[in-house]
Design brief:
Shape of chain A: globular
CATH topology of chain A: UDP-N-acetylmuramoyl-L-alanine:D-glutamate ligase
Order of helices and strands of chain A: EEEHEHEEEEHEHHEHHEEEHHH
Largest sheet of chain A: 9 strands, mixed
Number of strands of chain A: 13
CATH architecture of chain A: 3-Layer(aba) Sandwich
Number of helices of chain A: 10
Strand order of the largest sheet of chain A: 5-4-1-8-9-10-11-12-13
Distance between the termini of chain A: 34 Å
Strand content of chain A: 25-35%
Oligomer: homodimer
Structural class of chain A: alpha/beta
Helix content of chain A: 25-40%
CATH class of chain A: Alpha Beta
Number of domains of chain A: 1
Radius of gyration of chain A: 18 Å
């Protein structure tokens, strides 16, 4: 069992039609490792400033997250500010203060280098080489990306797609990368670019998974009150990869269950601001929701 | 086994980014009865002009559709013209020539009046009374509607929602009727207006079903090349109601399977212009696709 998550640990300022929150804890690495912590003991690689709350570090530790790879540097923590509309799939970035994240070159602790699964959350694709070069021979390399890299680092991104095993994308990203409007075509085109598995996240409409000769889909948990969609995608990745790390299988049935656990964790993430929902979550609730997914879709 | 479908039998002129078709056979009653014919022997109530092709009537008959309720009147058949964009969920009506449909007052043949299931496809809700008054005591009354009636006959529509058992709506209609943006809230609000079952059609994202203490969902069949989305919703209703008529059960498991059969029939409808796909479809292909749905969603 060894999953390394390379991603941001940050402050988020969130504006929604239902309320605002100033500088609460967020970041892809935070969401992903918290979600994964219900299945495995994830290792996180990232950086925070000295302003980052110790009690959040203690919380992550208490959830079994390995923090050896999380650097604390002089300076301020990465800060993102975003705004959501009524339709939670639409969001606007209002501010990005990279702070200590600006010069971040992920150093992988020696103890992490033999890890089985490596997840590159929202890293600049030009830095993948540097990060992956520090690992021995991971069984699985997974990556997500953000609109910024699609717009500004397209060639590097396409090159990285050619060498990762698993790629997470939302519908907008999938369309932008492939130029395909139809989501099924976009998913298949992404598989054609390299990854053996593409996870296409559709927000309130669930997720589709494409492999060579493999299609699987899951609905979203029916949620009436999305409080804060931030981190849903990272929590999805955390549930998915955390479960895969735990089962250590990669058969179709493992992938299917991992996708559902990913959806389960995403469905929790959006029920409160920031990481709030994970503070009141235990494995029993995770299993109960997994069963609800079964009930929702079984015929 | 007795399902009566009251709806339009029409000519459609279809414009899509992939091609056009002039005055091909369409209409809610046509799609619905063809889709239902793979499960039961549906009875159709509608009207066509003398310009309607005899060979289509012969085709419906050969599929086991009971045509006693389909009037042939002097004059021209209802003609609709519509245009689809790249996103097949967006369509614009370019022309509506009601012709013989303008004065259509559905007369239910004596033989149909004891039918078990009645489906009012896209009827003016002010005419429901007249139609339903001719039936003895149907076990199930189902209805669909169109944007036109939501905009122009809102009160009558709300009144009808209070007395039908099953309501079919697409996402736009559900939002317009309830004023809810969130689709789960919209679905639940519709159940609150009367129907014991609400089927919310989401096009490429599948369908959700709401009852009192019941939620079920199905993904759409992954389709890369939507040729013509016309009739998908009516084919969904036909598969759903046709299967329910055949099983004669109304338990949760019957509803779930009916929803999947509805999705199966809708997935075929969009693979060709007009009713083209149904001309080359047999029960074996229907069952094979039902199994594909299982494979797509089982975990």
């Amino acid at each position: 069992m060894s999953l390394v998550i390379v991603g941001s640990v940050a402050f988020d300022t969130i504006r929604t039609p239902w309320g605002d929150r100033e500088k609460i804890v967020g970041g892809s690495g935070t969401y992903c490792s918290l979600a994964a912590s219900y299945f495995t003991r994830p290792r996180i690689v990232g950086v925070v400033g000295r302003d980052f709350p110790r009690k959040t570090l203690a919380l992550l530790k208490s959830r079994g997250v390995d923090l050896e790879g999380l650097k604390v540097m002089a300076g301020k923590t990465f800060h993102w500010e975003g705004k959501y509309e009524e339709d939670p799939n639409r969001r606007t970035t209002l501010r990005t203060e990279l702070n200590v994240f600006a010069d971040f070159r992920p150093e992988i602790p020696a103890r992490y280098r033999g890890s089985r699964i490596v997840y590159l959350a929202n890293l600049n694709p030009e830095h993948h080489d540097y990060v992956l070069g520090q690992f021995r021979k991971p069984a699985l390399v997974a990556m997500d990306t953000i609109r910024l890299w699609i717009d500004t680092k397209r060639d590097a991104l396409l090159k990285e797609l050619g060498r990762v095993d698993i790629f997470f994308a939302n519908d907008e990203e999938a369309r932008l990368i492939t130029g395909e409007t139809n989501l099924i075509s976009a998913g298949k085109a992404l598989v054609g670019l390299g990854p053996s598995l593409v996870l296409l996240k559709k927000g309130e409409h669930g997720a589709l998974v494409f492999g060579r000769d493999f299609v699987f889909g899951v609905l979203a948990h029916p949620c009436e009150h999305v409080i804060d969609p931030t981190g849903a995608g990272d929590s999805f990745a955390g549930g998915f990869l955390g479960f895969l790390d735990k089962t250590s299988g990669l058969a179709g049935k493992d992938i299917r269950r991992a996708v559902v656990y990913g959806s389960v964790m995403a469905s929790f993430a959006i029920e409160d601001f920031g990481i709030g929902r994970f503070l009141k979550l235990d494995r029993g609730l995770v299993e109960a929701r997994f069963k609800q997914f079964r009930k929702l879709t079984t015929f």
